[in-house]
Design goal:
The protein is of the alpha+beta class. The chain has two domains: about 90 residues, no CATH class; about 230 residues, Bira Bifunctional Protein, Domain 2 (BirA Bifunctional Protein, domain 2, 2-Layer Sandwich), CATH 3.30.930. The protein is about 45% helix and about 20% strand. It has a seven-stranded mixed beta sheet with strand order 1-4-5-9-8-7-6, sandwiched between helices. Strands 2-3 form a two-stranded antiparallel ribbon. The protein is rod-shaped, with a radius of gyration of 43 Å. Bound molecules: 3,4-dihydroxyphenylalanine (DAH). The site of 3,4-dihydroxyphenylalanine has 11 residues, from strand 8 and strand 9.
Length: about 350
């Protein structure tokens, strides 16, 4: 019997160690201390032993019983503590008094948002949105736009030349030529896109910026169409019914006459800091498409006429949202970007 008791003792320790739940522990308790458990059986067998053996085996069984009882009790306490700790750990994640960490949510970039607004406006007015390449040839960027090699207007364009003779487009006007030659007439397109100029940066100039170009060519297109279109789109863009436009003469080689269009300040009636107290804001370059341009695209200027209109997309957004530095558009400053 000594050996059996020794073996049971080892089994008891192993079983207690392995019991990691109260159910498992209860199974150990029943196996050893239950009515038909190991200890009850040992007691049965004890009865059969001689008096002398009883004296030595009896205390061993008792010791095993004691070990089983204290072992189960201890383990039960351990498990209770572990349960409490686990519960506390869980509650740590559901602490309703804890302050919630601010989630960073994404938003559309000011460029995306402004260009989408403009596209929606022009699509609703019947224009197609088209794109042209950012790397252009001299022909599309200058020549076909009535700016020949010796033309002084080239100097204003501070061009980034590429070693193979091509250039980074200095405006979106070359898309006029590409669309006219590819699509012919009648034509109504809006071309937004990146443009580049090799100039020093300050709050209102950047070496890379965005322009939008509008071109409408058909029979009998007039300055009235141009002014009405400008007013309609600016009202929609600045979301106001109270916006007038005024035309001033301007010079751009690819239009004749060239016209600069100002909008009445959408933010004031008398004068504010945005319109520099004049009540007017310069926004658009425009004019009637020059006959040379139409001809260079294979279109007869005796039959067709058109207007072209160009603007800085940052300039429009800066006026609309009160942004005072063009460099913020590319600055990747999250505090600036998350406002939109
Ligand atoms: N391309 C001109 C610039 O970058 C802007 C412009 C002026 C576009 C008059 C036009 C226009 O379409 O008619 O300065």
């Amino acid at each position: 019997m000594h050996d059996i008791i020794k073996k049971l003792e080892q089994e008891l320790h192993a079983a207690l160690q392995q019991a990691t739940s109260s159910d498992a522990l209860e199974a150990v308790r029943i196996a050893f201390l239950g009515r038909n458990g190991h200890i009850a059986k040992l007691m049965q067998q004890l009865k059969e032993l001689s008096l002398e053996d009883k004296r030595t085996v009896g205390p061993e069984i008792n010791r095993l019983k004691q070990e089983a009882e204290t072992g189960c009790l201890q383990k039960s306490e351990e498990l209770t503590h572990a349960n409490i700790r686990a519960e506390q750990e869980k509650q740590r994640f559901f602490d309703v008094t804890a302050s919630v960490r601010k989630e960073l949510t994404g938003s559309l970039h000011i460029y995306t948002r402004t260009i989408e607004d403009l596209e929606n406006i022009f699509i609703s007015m019947g224009y197609d949105v088209v794109e042209g390449p950012e790397i252009e040839t001299d022909f599309y960027n200058f020549e076909a736009l009535n700016i020949p090699a010796d033309h002084p207007a080239r100097e204003e364009h501070d061009t980034f030349w590429i070693s193979d003779g091509r250039l980074l487009r200095t405006h979106t006007s070359p898309v006029q030529i590409r669309a006219l030659t590819q699509r012919g007439t009648p034509l109504a397109i809006f071309a937004p896109g990146r443009t580049f100029r090799h100039e020093a940066t300050d709050a209102s100039h950047d070496f890379m910026f965005m322009q939008g170009e509008l071109l409408y060519v058909d029979k009998q297109v007039s300055i009235s169409n141009l002014l009405a279109t400008a007013q309609t789109f600016l009202k929609a863009f600045f979301q106001t019914d109270h916006l007038n436009v005024r035309a001033r003469p301007g010079y751009f080689p690819f239009v004749e006459p060239g016209i600069e269009i100002d909008a009445s300040c959408p933010f004031c009636t008398g004068g504010c800091s945005i319109c520099k107290r004049t009540g007017w804001i310069e926004l658009l370059g425009s004019g009637l498409v020059h006959p040379h341009v139409l001809r260079s695209c294979g279109i007869d200027p005796e039959i067709y006429s058109g207007f072209a209109l160009g603007f800085g997309i940052e300039r429009l957004a800066m006026v609309k949202y009160g942004i005072n530095d063009i460099r913020l558009f590319h600055g990747n400053n999250i505090e600036f970007l998350e406002q939109f």
